[in-house]
Amino acid sequence: MTRILSYNIQTGGMHRIDKLATIIEATRADVIGLTEATNPHVAEELAKKLGMHLRLSGQAKHHKDWHVGLLSRLPIKDMQAHVRPDILTKQHLLEVTIEENNGDPLTAFVVHLTADFYKGVESNRIRRAEVQEILNIMSVRRGTPHLLMGDFNAIAPGEGLKTSTLLSYVFDPEQEYLKQYTNAIGQTELDIVTRSSIRILKAIPGNTLLSAITNSASLLYAPRAGLELLYKAGYVDCYRRVNPRTPGYTYPASSPAGRIDFIFASPELAPRLEKSHVVVKAAGVPGHEASDHLPVFAEFS
What we know:
Layout: E1 2-8, H1 17-27, E2 31-35, H2 40-50, E3 53-56, E4 69-72, E5 76-82, E6 93-99, E7 105-112, H3 121-138, E8 146-151, H4 163-170, H5 177-185, H6 187-203, H7 208-216, H8 218-221, H9 227-232, E9 236-237, H10 238-242, E10 261-265, E11 273-278, E12 281-282, E13 285-286, H11 287-290, E14 296-300
Parallel strand pairs: 1-2, 7-8
Antiparallel strand pairs: 1-14, 2-4, 3-4, 5-6, 6-7, 8-10, 9-10, 11-14, 12-13
Helix pairs in contact: 1-2, 5-6
């Protein structure tokens, strides 16, 4: 068996190392794709605690350097960080080839797509271009087992978003979401949004009718990322393949409202898929205490 975990550890994971390590260890994952690995010291400490090899897409020097990483208890044979500053605008695409227990190679790609939700439909275009470039990069692995995992900041085709639940989280002062988001994108950009819509959005969670309308209409406005391009290319959404009906929401961890974290298996790897689930709690640690995302697990024979 080879067990895979995709985990957004939330802005580096500082002060949550023990809880992150506990959850990861409880899943018995062999390979873990880390997004928001902004603090290399935290990633190194996680690797040490778990007894794993570590590879990072780069050394973050600024709070906007949203690097990704990979932890592996299996031998690492090769790695490459694909830099496309004009297309992969958030960070690099990390490619790591590991050696499975039977000696065969398996390549894992780790990605964190751009959010920029305040840009509306333009953010969809940005993410779609990122997915197309990722497909171009992965084309050299065509015909061999490989996978793509990470935080796609988007909802899969045909799936919706529990908008009212998400808005309750966004406007909860204890979560400090708006403060963190302002720091990430800059006050000027946020002001554009606040002037036109914040007051309306705040009213939705407390109104039953507005909540029902916005939740039902989420198929029309939920952020997308060109995931249909992955499906068209033959990649299999591991969680949805195993769980065709359950939502599998991964964000926000404390009040899950949407599925934006994925593990995609190539056509060569997909037949080996046996299990996949979202890790809500592990070894007594609730997922929301370790990160604002819940990790996604997949097991291959």
